[in-house]
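User: Please fill in residues for this 174-position structure.
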């Protein structure tokens, strides 16, 4: 097949950019099979001839059987490595859990004060102090109750101003 060097360059450019059709690739293969190849295309010619030679080389029919036979004969060493890797992962997980437990327990111990000891040796004195503390709490509740009544009065007044009917059962009386 006679082609000038410009046509070959254009086809090769398309070939390297993966833009050639099957017919154009066949033209290139036939061209590079020939003997009158210019020096500028010698390397490309060798490449195309290499591709053709590799097509002709094929594996013999017993190749697959031979490979499978050798694989079965050899003892697989990978299982031991996988097992050791899994054991190492488990051990690392256990170490992380133990360390986390240790640090959490340390934080809990820091946040809680040690056990509180009795502050009063005399039970009557302790009773009097407890009464004082409960009276303070009671006064606080009383004050809160008074403030709540005031809030309820304000709410009732607001509802009257807005013209809403007040239902005594719905208002909260403490």
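Assistant: Residues filled in for all 174 positions:
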């Amino acid at each position: 097949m006679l082609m000038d060097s410009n046509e070959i360059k254009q086809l090769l450019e398309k070939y390297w950019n993966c833009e050639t059709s099957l017919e154009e690739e066949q033209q290139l293969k036939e061209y590079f099979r020939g003997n009158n190849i210019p020096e500028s295309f010698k390397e490309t010619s060798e490449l195309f001839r290499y591709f053709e030679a590799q097509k002709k080389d094929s594996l013999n029919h017993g190749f697959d059987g031979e490979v499978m036979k050798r694989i079965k004969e050899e003892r697989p060493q990978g299982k031991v490595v996988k097992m050791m890797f899994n054991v190492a992962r488990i051990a690392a997980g256990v170490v992380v859990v133990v360390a986390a437990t240790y640090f959490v327990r340390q934080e809990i111990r820091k946040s809680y004060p040690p056990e509180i000891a009795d502050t009063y040796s005399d039970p009557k004195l302790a009773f009097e102090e407890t009464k004082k503390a409960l009276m303070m709490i009671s006064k606080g509740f009383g004050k809160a109750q008074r403030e709540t009544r005031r809030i309820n009065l304000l709410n009732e007044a607001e509802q009257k101003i807005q013209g809403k009917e007040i239902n005594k059962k719905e208002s909260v009386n403490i």
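For context: The mean pLDDT is 80.
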